Amino acid sequence: MPSSRKTLPQNILAAFQVIEYLRAFVASRLGLSAMNNLLILSGVFSLFRKDVLIEVGGYRSDVVTEDMELVMRLHRHMREQRRPYLVQFLPDPICWTEVPQKVGALARQRGRWHRGLIHSLWLHRSLGWKSGSGSLRWIGVPYYFLFEVLGPLVELLGYIIIPIAYFMGFLSPVYFWAFLFLAVTSGAFLSISAVFLEELSFGLYRSWGDFALMIGVGVLENFSYRILTLFFRLGAMLDIILGRGGWGKQERAGFDRIGSSPVKT
Fold first, then answer.
1. N vs C: which end of the chain shows fewer Cβ within 10 Å?
2. Per residue in 141-191, pLDDT tens?
3. How far apart are CA 165 and CA 154, in angstroms?
């Protein structure tokens, strides 16, 4: 798909995902890549050394996030053999991907991603405790486990405990509103910063209208999309407990049928 289509998607879920992807790619993945602690790559946009890929046996067919599991397996393989290597994220190439535009499709995708993350971390849990794992043991694996796997539980507890503490008088109004202000502004700040960095680096969305809309979507995300995906990830954790899984039905609209643009990654 040519990268000349630079308008924001008209579908609100797709617009939210533009901001989400910008935040993920511009911020966390660049930082983890710089430390060689990146455990997740977008499979369709990834390139691997063929010889090493064959060494580890290629993609597995018994996982729902085969690209994520493969990256972790490559980390483990190279570190166990004490061979120098890099798993890097390159922000310069401009790629386009189709994202879910319906709530049901988004729920299935995010549920699969979260189940796959938990499964992959469990399969390669030795990366979190073996001495040969290097910085993955105290940066990469803890980051994904604490912020990605356990993040939904911590966030849900915050939504429950803070209001209860406020209404029961255990939390002063000053601290309650300060917590609410910081929760909203910190999330919005990360999103807005990602938008500014994208514009400074690539300038794909030249329209001032699109730029203002991206800022607005970044703020609105904290009150809607973020909470929505929180419950999708919590549902994935429940699926694991109940032994449910699988890919589920994946819906594709096709770029030619999308009213505006697909999402840039």
1. N
2. 999 999 999 999 999 999 899 899 999 999 899 988 988 888 888 888 888
3. 16
Distance CA 85, CA 72 (A): 13
The answer to whether 64 and 112 have CB atoms below 8 angstroms apart is yes
Domain extents for the chain? 12-89+101-246
Contact 58, 230 (CB under 8 A): no
Lookup result for tokens 């469990």: 122
**What's the whole-model pTM score?**
0.87
The count of C-alpha atoms lying within 13 angstroms of the C-alpha of 14, restricted to the half-sphere facing its C-beta, is 22
- The sign one gets for the Cα dihedral 81, 79, 36, 19 is positive
Q: Name the nearest CA neighbour of 209 among 3, 10, 11.
A: 10
Between the alpha carbon of residue 187 and those of residues 19, 157, 194, the distances in Å are 11, 17, 11
CB atoms within 10 A of CB 253: 17
- Flag residues of the chain having pLDDT under 50: 1-3, 5, 258-261
Residue 211, Cβ neighbours under 10 Å: how many? Answer: 17
Amino acid, res. 172? S
